[in-house]
């Protein structure tokens, strides 16, 4: 029996050429100490992997729920190959955390399903500020690498 589906896994040593990639970041102002750190590390990683500084666009929105609108607008109006949504939601005493996490996740899923530009979910959802600070030290870079890989994936699918 022949399998019509083929899977190609790119080697972790062969990085995509990111020199002409255009990456947008939509960053929340809420929990700014965390989101600014995520943004700084993501930008450093993008540049280290060859994305030109002039090809990195940053826009800010008030909170995580507004990331959906900000990313949708960037998809529509930006000349962007991938978007990284950066936010941080810290659990509190009310169910607000659950509603925001569920709503932003669903919104970003919809943008990925119906848009032409990959949107990376870079929202930290944590129980404490200490957890957020710890995760911010590695996740910014991971979100940047994911954006580059998704641009490369999209380009491979188009060729």
Structural commentary:
- The structure is a single chain.
- By secondary structure, this protein is α/β, with parallel strands linked by helices.
- The chain has helices at residues 32-48, 67-77, 96-114, 129-158; strands at 23-28, 56-61, 82-90, 119-126.
- It has a four-stranded parallel sheet, with helices on both faces.
- Helix 1 (32-48) packs parallel to helix 4 and helix 2 packs parallel to helix 3.
- The two termini are 28 Å apart.
Write a short abstract of this structure:
The chain has helices at 32-48, 67-77, 96-114, 129-158; strands at 23-28, 56-61, 82-90, 119-126.
Number of separate helices: 4
Q: Unreliable runs, pLDDT <50, ≥5 residues?
A: 1-9
How much of the residues is beta strand, in percent? Answer: 15-25%
Strands side by side in the biggest sheet: 2-1-3-4
Secondary structure blueprint with pairings:
Blueprint: E1 23-28, H1 32-48, E2 56-61, H2 67-77, E3 82-90, H3 96-114, E4 119-126, H4 129-158
Parallel strand pairs: 1-2, 1-3, 3-4
Helix pairs in contact: 1-4, 2-3
